[in-house]
Amino acid sequence: MDFCDVDDATLTYECGPLAYDDFPKTEQPVYLLGEVYSAIHDLEDLRHDVRSRLWLTYRKNFPSIGGTGPTSDAGWGCMLRCGQMMLAHALILRHLGRSWRWFEGTSDEKYKRILKMFQDKKSSYYSIQQIAAMGVSEGKAVGHWFGPNTIAQVLKKLVVYDEWSSLVIHVAMDNTVIEEDIRCLCKPAEYKDRLDMKEIHGMKKRMSNSPGAQLIDCYSDSASSNVNSETLVHKKEVDSTKWKPLLLVIPLRLGLTETNAVYVDSLKCCLRFRQSVGLIGGKPNHAHWFIGYVGDEMIFLDPHLTQNSVDIDELDSADDSFHCGHSSRMKILELDPSIALGYFCETEADFDDLCHSIRKFIMCPGGTVMFELCKTRPHHWPPYEPHTTKAGINTSEFTMVERASCGSDEEFELVG
User: Fold this and answer.
1) pLDDT at 289 over 50
2) 3-state secondary structure 231-262
3) Residue 395's pLDDT band (boundaries 50, 70, 90)?
4) 193-222 tens-digit pLDDT
5) pLDDT at 73 exceeding the cut of 50
6) DSSP string, 77-106
7) Which residues, in sequence order, are CB contacts of 184 under 8 Å at separation 6+?
8) Residues 168, 159: contact at Cβ < 8 Å?
9) Could you identify which of 142, 284, 341, 413 might form a hypothetical disulfide with 250, taking C-beta atoms 3.0 to 4.6 angstroms apart as the criterion?
10) What's the burial of 384, exposed, middle or buried (CB within 10 Å: 0-12/13-18/19+)?
């Protein structure tokens, strides 16, 4: 991981003519977050698409984590930022659609509301403060590097507080996507016989007594800015008759110490699906958000730039530092084998189409299977618990780790 030198200077990307080869001049198609472009004929549209993604980088001079903790995530927060970027794109799809584009000075209220969710302040749902603090419940001390699975698990916990988006996150473990589990999560009314109501009421009690119940303190549609656990559970019960938009995250390991070449074609195929929100991964302790590919090169946004924290709530505050004028590229085989694929399914029809595409293009005879897709949960597996929530944590006390101790990643079951 880069340990950026955090000095008094504010580093920003300067929009303007730069001698930067963001896309090669090639006839090969460019696949970007479910869209297809020509790097020759669609170059400006392609660049505008990249520029419209939320670019979340290292920041400094933000309110300290836990009141006395770090005021910058430089050197340890890159995977946290990549998780933010993937989720931010899912929220843009949810509220604005894939065709939405950012223009400097935009006054789009939905866009501004999404952006505020990722500000570096405790009152924001998906802030670095909330993510780092919730990471403690996953065994990651504040200042410790996350792996793809850890950030997915943390965001899964935080998203339940975002009533406006009504989004659910499913993290598919053991290289296996279970359709029935996801339908149970997204349409619980149709699977109510599988839910243990005692567990739900027990969860309400645990959440109300948990420090995590006070962890989130954000604006909402309700009169109170605090989201209490009883409201959360009640809302899930009331809204359980319709499909809840899904962010599906699939953590994988595509080799022992390096990406195995046998998975390259399957990986490309996964990035071509229209539901793709990219993947998070990179090199050891050096994470990126990968948004597509061209030829044998991955296209990514890089969070390793330290910028001053920006408060969007302030008058005349600019949002240009949240958008990058160019993407970067790296060879697919240079990718660290620990990754997490992401897919957004707004509707059940989107999920059905994704399952069909996986079976047709990934699980086809003669192909290299990266993960399994099953209709139902194997009998020897424990019951699925879609509403399980671990106890929250108190960010007023935490342990800072030495940066040198940051490991490469969590444990994964090897594919194949």
Assistant:
1) yes
2) HHHHHHHHCCCCCCCEEEEEEEECCCCCCCHH
3) very low
4) 555 543 444 444 444 444 444 454 443 443
5) yes
6) -HHHHHHHHHHHHHHHHHHT-TT----TT-
7) 191, 194, 195, 384, 386
8) yes
9) 341
10) middle
> What is the pLDDT confidence band of residue 229, given thresholds at 50, 70 and 90?
very low
**Pick the catalytic residue: 302, 323, 336, 409?**
302
Set 95, 144, 170, 304: catalytic member: 304
- Is 193 a catalytic site residue? no
Residue identified by tokens 């836990």 is: 66
Q: Which stretch of 20-29, 363-372, 383-392 has the lowest confidence by average pLDDT?
A: 383-392
Q: Is 158 left (phi over 0), alpha (psi -120 to 50) or beta?
A: alpha
Q: What is the pLDDT of residues 251-266, one digit of tens each?
A: 999 999 999 999 999 9
CA distances from 167 to 93, 137, 182, 244 (A): 11, 21, 13, 6
CA distances from 60 to 65, 76, 147 (A): 12, 12, 22
SS3 282: strand
Please choose, from the candidates 263, 271, 284, 285, the residue with its C-alpha nearest in 3D space to the C-alpha of residue 333.
Answer: 263
Q: Which residue, 343, 287, 322, is CA-closest to 116?
A: 322
Query: Within 13 Å, how many C-alpha atoms sit on residue 322's CB side?
Result: 28
Pairwise CA distance, residues 25 & 39, whole Å: 6
Residue 302 among the catalytic residues:
yes
125: number of Cβ within 10 Å: 25
Q: What are the start-end ranges of the E strands in 68-190?
A: 168-171, 176-178
